[in-house]
Amino acid sequence: MSYILAFAFGIGVVAGLRSLTAPAAVAWAAHLDLLHLHDSPLAFMASTWTVILFSALAIFELVADLLPKTPKRTAPGPLAARIITGGLCGASLCAPTNQSLLIGAALGTLGAVIGAFAGYEIRKRLVTGLNAKDIFIALPEDLIAIGLALFLVTR
After folding, report:
1. What distance, in Å, lies between the first and last C-alpha atoms of the chain?
2. Got the DSSP string for 104-139?
3. Where are the alpha helices (DSSP H) in the chain?
4. For range 110-124, the mean pLDDT
5. Residue 44 and residue 46: Cα distance in Å, rounded?
6. Which of 49, 83, 79, 66 is closest to 127 using CA atoms?
7. Most buried in the list 17, 39, 91, 93, measured by CB within 10 Å?
8. What pLDDT, in 10s, does the model give residues 63-98?
């Protein structure tokens, strides 16, 4: 089951890229019973309200990310959100396999920090290096975050 720990780290990286994409994917997977959280302290992730909330917030975040006044993901507030959602999602991926929730949360948190800083640097360097508009890098980044999240929660 060590791959579960890698997945907990990976979903944290997703949270580092897009703080609300990771919990939206986890909530959908739990709601559709692809991720069995019923007997865990994280059972609330499967509720309809949680799915609606995280889905709406994730869509809002995808749009807000394209706005010029959106703060950097490495600023204290956005980074804190990524740390929290990365930890929540990392623990959620560990719960169905009886892995330590604390270790899952720690790996998700670590992944979120790495994902936030690496994602920011890569995006900044691609925009500069390719002399491209930010949107042309942001949209593929969105697709990568969504695709990786879906991969991780369906395994």
Report:
1. 12
2. HHHHHHHHHHHHHHHHHHHHHHHHHHHT--THHHHH
3. 2-17, 21-31, 48-64, 76-94, 101-130, 135-153
4. 97
5. 5
6. 66
7. 93
8. 998 888 889 999 999 999 999 999 999 999 999 998
Long-range contacts of 141-144 (CB under 8 A, 24+ apart): 141/17, 141/18, 142/18, 142/21, 142/62, 142/65, 144/17
Q: What is the DSSP letter of 96?
A: G
Which residue is associated with the tokens 């942001």? 138
d(CA 92, CA 107): 11
Confidence of residue 1 (pLDDT cuts 50, 70, 90): low
**Measured distance CA(37)–CA(31) in Å, rounded:** 9
Amino acid at 95: A
Which amino acid, one-letter code, is at 58?
A
In this structure, which amino acid lies at residue 135? I
Is the model's pLDDT at 140 over the cut of 70? yes
φ, ψ for residue 95, nearest 5 deg? -55, -45
Query: What are the two backbone dihedrals, phi and then psi, of residue 74, each rounded to the nearest 5 degrees?
Result: -95, 0
For residue 21, what are its two tokens?
Answer: 């994409």
The whole-number pLDDT of residue 81 equals 97
CA distance 129 to 127: 6
